[in-house]
Amino acid sequence: MGITSLAAIGAGLAAIGAGLGIGKIGGSAMESIARQPEAASKIQTAMLIAAAFIEAVALFAVVVSLIAK
Fold first, then answer.
1. Where are the transmembrane segments (predicted)?
2. Contact 49, 41 (CB under 8 A)
């Protein structure tokens, strides 16, 4: 298995991890909004910020794995 294959696996794992993380955030946010509809705007803001951080880390991991080849 070459370096290119390992870089592709790393990029794939980063994408899967980001998808799982954002899915967890979205599900938890929907559950929270269902429990407290009056806090929907605060929950949505926190959810979007957390999703942006996850995307940034995932993008960084993909770039690092592709540079490593």
1. 6-25, 46-68
2. no
Spatial CA neighbour of 62 closest among 1, 7, 5, 22: 7
Structural domain boundaries enclosing 53: 3-67
DSSP string covering 11-63, please? HHHHHHHHHHHHHHHHHHHHHHHHH-GGGHHHHHHHHHHHHHHHHHHHHHHHH
What is the pLDDT tens value at each position of the chain, 69 positions in all?
Answer: 677 788 888 888 888 999 999 999 999 999 999 999 999 999 999 999 999 999 999 999 888 888 876
Residues in the chain: 69
